[in-house]
Design brief:
It is a single chain. The chain has 180 residues and is an alpha+beta fold. Helix content is 42%, strand content 16%. It has helices spanning 2-8, 10-43, 138-146, 148-173; strands spanning 47-51, 61-66, 74-79, 94-99, 119-124. A hairpin with a 7-residue loop joins strand 2 and strand 3 (74-79). Helix 2 crosses helix 4 and helix 3 packs across helix 4 (148-173). The model has no long low-confidence stretch (mean pLDDT 88).
């Protein structure tokens, strides 16, 4: 049945196969850019907010660094905006404390549970309007594409939960940072 559809629509099938990940990555980039923009508007007085790697790579993030400190070693992040499944956290988005280069020191245990070689105290974003927050879920993506109010609410929830997380964990991270 599916083979017949593919054969009868071969050129369109080849086009879809060759472009679906790029199209989803581009849309995920739009979502990431929207979240980044609102975060910058709301927290840039205290944090530097910037893109991580592209959405068509294995991992894709938003990085959040505390202003006034050297922040190349420990900072916050939201991951995974990628079209790929995160091998450590599976599908969905997480917010957490990122320890660059996977450095593991005994005192870092005060940051919380280590959930991968790099992430501490990560939290998975909860569902939004009965949708699991998973940027690979076709039902969620469809709703985000087709409904601007839903899209805006989605972005606002990610931003709000991220700010809540920062308020809880910033004081935990500061002792590991050097003032500039």
């Amino acid at each position: 049945e599916l083979l017949e559809v593919i054969v009868n629509n071969y050129e369109a099938s080849i086009f879809l196969v060759n472009n679906i990940n790029r199209t989803i990555a581009n849309f995920n980039e739009k979502i990431r850019a929207s979240i980044l923009k609102v975060l910058v508007e709301k927290i840039s007085d205290r944090y530097i907010v910037e893109n991580g790697t592209r959405t068509d790579t294995k991992y894709s993030q938003i990085w959040i660094r505390i202003k006034g400190y050297e922040t190349d070693k420990i900072f916050f992040g939201i991951q995974n905006f990628s079209v790929n499944v995160d091998p450590f956290f599976g599908k969905g988005l997480i917010v957490g404390i990122f320890v660059n280069h996977g450095v593991e020191l005994e005192e870092y245990k005060t940051l919380g549970t280590k959930n991968s070689p790099w992430w501490y105290a990560n939290e998975r974003f909860k569902n939004f309007n009965d949708f699991e927050i998973d940027l690979q879920n076709p039902k969620l993506l469809s709703k985000l594409i087709m409904n601007q109010d839903f899209y805006n609410g989605f972005v606002e929830q990610i931003v709000t939960k991220t700010i809540d997380y920062l308020e809880i964990h910033t004081d935990d991270v500061i002792p590991f940072l050097k003032p500039i």
